[in-house]
Amino acid sequence: MCKINGNGTTLENIHRAAKAEFLEKGYKDASLRNIVKSVGMTTGAFYGYYKSKEELFEAIVGEHYEYIRNRFIKAQQEFAELPAARQPEVMSDISGICMYDILHYAYEHLEECKLILVCSEGTKFAGLIDEMVEIEVEGTHAYQEVLRKLGRPSPHIDPSLEHILITGMFHTFFELIIHEMPLKDAENYVREMRAFYTAGWMKIMGQ
């Protein structure tokens, strides 16, 4: 693959220019023409790599979106597969490990994850938090059923309140990444945030 200005392959330079443009303007307002121009290539040459701005954005963030989503789904599955009697004992542990894994991954791929979280409006990646909220809602309902079977039923939780609390939890978590909190501070905040939300949910569920 040809090199541009000795700074890397053409594809690497396209990605570097695209990340800068997307981070500055967001996906919707980013200019494919500016990206191509900054790399020093023609639009026709660019289309030899990607068919559209959307395909370019997906090439940059796609695998990172899938990691975050799949890591969260895996944690939910691991928890659901535990014996019912064990679930109340380890609920906080499994969710904590998952959040720390996502936090560390995001800090290793900070630009790409910030693109997903704050610059992806107009793409399918903009719904990451909403997807995670829906998965968490389903997991919460499944856990309530486990508690019922254990003879520890939880009171009815208003769906609107449930959605607000879960959405707030994810926004709180991802704010650490968006604002590039020093990692050690972010780890401490995650620990405190988990303690806060765990205590709140236990209270609401009457546990």
Automatic annotation (TrEMBL):
PROSITE patterns: HTH_TETR_2. Gene3D superfamilies: Tetracycline Repressor, domain 2. Residues 8-68 form the HTH tetR-type domain. Residues 31-50 bind DNA. The keyword DNA-binding applies. This is TetR/AcrR family transcriptional regulator. Keywords: DNA-binding. InterPro entries: Homeodomain-like_sf, HTH-type_Tx_Regulator, HTH_TetR. Pfam families: TetR_N. It comes from Blautia faecis.
